[in-house]
Amino acid sequence: MTNPVKAVVATAQRMINAEYGKTYQRHLQVTSSLIGRLGLEKELEGHSGCVNCLEWNSTGTLLASGSDDLKVIVWDPLLHRQKCVVNTGHEGNIFSVKFLPNSNDATIVSGAADTEVKVHDLNKLETTHTFSCHGGRVKRLATADNVPFMFWSAAEDGTIMQFDLRQPHRCESVCNSVLINLNAHLGVNAEAKCLAVNPARPEQLAVGANDPFIRLYDRRMLSPRPTRSGQGQGARSSWERHSFLICAAVDGEDFSLPEGCATYFVAGHLPLKQQEYSKRFRTLAATYITFSPDGTELLANLGGEQIYLFDVSHRRLPTNIDLPVSLEAANPVAKGLANCQQRRSFSRVRPIRCLTSWTTRSPSRSTTTPSVTRAMPLFSTQTELPPT
Asked: Collapsing DSSP states into helix, strand and coil, what is residue 225?
């Protein structure tokens, strides 16, 4: 018989070795020599429409692609050939595809412009689950490595939904999958654009919407709430379901967040710039967010603006930069920055790195500019402007 003590020690040793392996991989994931060797290796042909999303499996041996042709193709990237083609049954462009963790790469999830989320079995090439709860285009899906059978979706109806395949689900008049309803916090025009789960701390869920704020939620303090979805009440179209979700947020359904549940990150000049963009009939929106492999940094792309990197593990209050008159006179860049500050506009300067601004208070949906202290951007110049 196997000694139970030795078995426990061996299991612990395997876990430790695996964790060291992950640390080593993450440390050497991106190096200058690797970047210098990057180039086009092969064009994979198979789709007949625009490819909107790509997703690697956890080991990097499979690549899934979703397209406007309503198909998902799983590729062998090393041999440059197709493994299988999934006819998803979607009726709109596929915007996101994910491998479900701990499924032996046999289960994928897709989200599309037809407002539906579907689960597919790659072995049988069939769709096993269809979720029609959303009332807007499904833009992003997210999974967590240590949370099998569960995934999250972000849609332009302003909601973040959580699905657990271990529980029976029916899209009825009351939806039990709504985890976050941004319509209750951002306003009736809220649209969830992207989301990501922290790989090192899977309880952290980051959400980007059609405003300059990146929201970081603690899932341990949240649970899906029953919400009227309109299914079974004559609301068959996505617009009708969207209206029900908005009405649920406006008519007093409780979507309040527990104290300390959410943290908001924003580049200091952007809430002010939001007013300028609104005058041009444009809105700042986070189109993509992702965590670093060690989970300490959050990268956010704001459509029509810049890319920002936030430190989520060492949060700090924003720093304001006061420019002395002598510095303004001696440095033309500083003088231009001072002029921009006087005009309350940053349209003529291009920030490439920005101090982190954060607050645990939700931005008010009744005002355009939330009451948070703004951080001035740093600029790439020969004389860097030191914060005071």
From this structure: strand
